[in-house]
Amino acid sequence: MSMGVPEIEDAKLLFIFGYNGADAHPIVARRIVKAKQKGAKLIVTDPRITESARIADMHLQLKGGSNMALINAIGNVIIAEGLADKKFVEDHTSGYEEYKAIVEKYTPEYAEPICHVSPDLIREAARAYAKAETSMILYGMGVCQFAQAVDVVKGLASLALLTGNFGGPNMGIGPVRGQNNVQGACDMGALPNCYSGYQSVTDDAVREKFEKAWGVPLSNKVGIPLTHVPHRVLEEKDEAKKIHAYYIFGEDPAQSDPDLAEIRETLDKIDFVIMQDIFMNKTGLHADVILPSTSWGEHDGIYSCCDRGFQRIRKAIEPKGDVKTDWEIISLISTAMGYPMNYKNTQEIWDEMRSLTPSFYGATYEKIEALGSIQWPCRDESMEDKGTPYLHKGGKFAHPDGRGKFFASEWRPPCEVESSEYPYSLSTVREVGHYSVRTMTGNCRALANLEDEPGWIQMSPADCEKLNVKEGDLIRVYSRRGSLITRVMPTERVKAGATYMTYQWWIGACNELTTPYLDPISNTPESKYCAINLEKIDDQASAEQFVKDSYESIRTNMGIDTAKKGV
Ligand SMILES: Nc1nc2c(c(=O)[nH]1)N[C@H]1C(S)=C(S)[C@@H](COP(=O)(O)OP(=O)(O)OC[C@H]3O[C@@H](n4cnc5c(=O)[nH]c(N)nc54)[C@H](O)[C@@H]3O)O[C@H]1N2
Ligand SMILES: Nc1nc2c(c(=O)[nH]1)N[C@H]1C(S)=C(S)[C@@H](COP(=O)(O)OP(=O)(O)OC[C@H]3O[C@@H](n4cnc5c(=O)[nH]c(N)nc54)[C@H](O)[C@@H]3O)O[C@H]1N2
Ligand SMILES: [Mo]
User: Which residues belong to any copy of the Molybdopterin oxidoreductase domain (predicted)?
Assistant: First the structure.
């Protein structure tokens, strides 16, 4: 994020793009409501009527999979109507002419048949975004989970460049990232291509610094992204590139990755799987070794918020049973493999990391404790350096020439679209009551009592009528990759032909249906679009029995006491 989460409240305009705060981040959603109460204009771009869309001044209810065309059209209007911040563009950016050449074609009239948004509304949104004193973009998985995702992120950043919405408070662009510490995992270098602080593994000077500190030779090759693992197990012919062992922790690919049939085959064919988790999950059913670890209330550490803010977390209770913290398990494995790690606590690990990471060096435990949160970059240990609430101050960017780079791309349709055989689109999203692979919320009996298997498919009332199904009916959903049973939820919030499921259900597991197509740069799968068909089930009683039996059988396999409600 170029700005901080608290700044959301003071922006004059919020442009919310493929992000549903009310279900995904209720605390951030409160800030959106507060911004509105303080007079901010709200523009929401989402194919569904989300809660933010319901209270928005403008809702661009685009057709799923058309983000790039819409963003290009907004850039087109800003340029055509002379609304760009010419001084900012001249002084602080590069690539404007190339950008202009691409968006020229994307008039609102050209975009309309792709996006299904009226040219008037596109113009109105572009004018409001460009004219507001400070405009802030918030985006989420409705941008990132497409095979054309990185292009769209850059396209959104280009709108901020075009209108000078960088370098000051209450403006900018923010991916409102998912998990409490997904930003932290990336900050610490849990990525295939970098060390902590985004220092590249292919940079010789960086590699030599880490080699010296750790006293071992290190590879200069980029590693393997999570979503390439199935290919490297199932199809790789080159023995040197084939994967034989898979150490998985804090992740349940057998539920959260696309095309689960392929994932199961991968986990079964691979020689050795280690699973390290706080609960049993579907991946654990394929594991050779299970390492139980402590949960967030049972250990110390630091999380990074999506706005680059480091925050300390503290152990609240003593762990029970035969468990260890994740860092102790990693240290023990490393020691057993011949590289001793003798850390006594998380502060020692943090201090070592800081000493090798200039942009985080100033964020000491003591300072984070005193200030509550420190947003990187924070380079100096002294109390004067309180971190960086917003980036690009004075219009300075990280490119070698100090300028922000414009980017536009032609729109590409999703990889799998509707056909006569699979006439509906499926997008997979979130609901407020359950979390990701549902190990955590499913183990909370109160939440399981509110909502349990097999989950729902959101459909337009017109589609329900066409299929002659009503709320709560079990229905069969199938794609080219798999099939499942879920419940019908008719809702006016979605358009005809487009359906939505949440991805936490074990029986109604939508990743049986999703496609493994990836964005070529981020390697994120296209979870937001695939083609499906729906089939009414006549014998509802046996379908209900099937759901009950399969849920019980999964829980029995996982060693869960099925007499209790919840997982
Ligand atoms: N309760 C709960 N909270 C969670 C999670 C959870 O599982 N449960 N998961 C956490 C995680 S890991 C993450 S990453 C965040 C994600 O939080 P969000 O980013 O809000 O994620 P989604 O709900 O998947 O998708 C956001 C919106 O994208 C829209 N969308 C779909 N297709 C398109 C499109 O083509 N264009 C546009 N503009 N929008 C589109 C969907 O309708 C949806 O409303 O939530 C986090 N918070
Ligand atoms: N169809 C579809 N699929 C999706 C998405 C979508 O929108 N649609 N969203 C994707 C996104 S954005 C994300 S982030 C992923 C999330 O998917 P995952 O990362 O697989 O799911 P989580 O539920 O966040 O947690 C994974 C595991 O971590 C364990 N865990 C929790 N705390 C700890 C801990 O302290 N230590 C250890 N070792 N384990 C712990 C949990 O019990 C759980 O088994 O799903 C992705 N999959
Ligand atoms: Mo996420």
Answer: 7-334
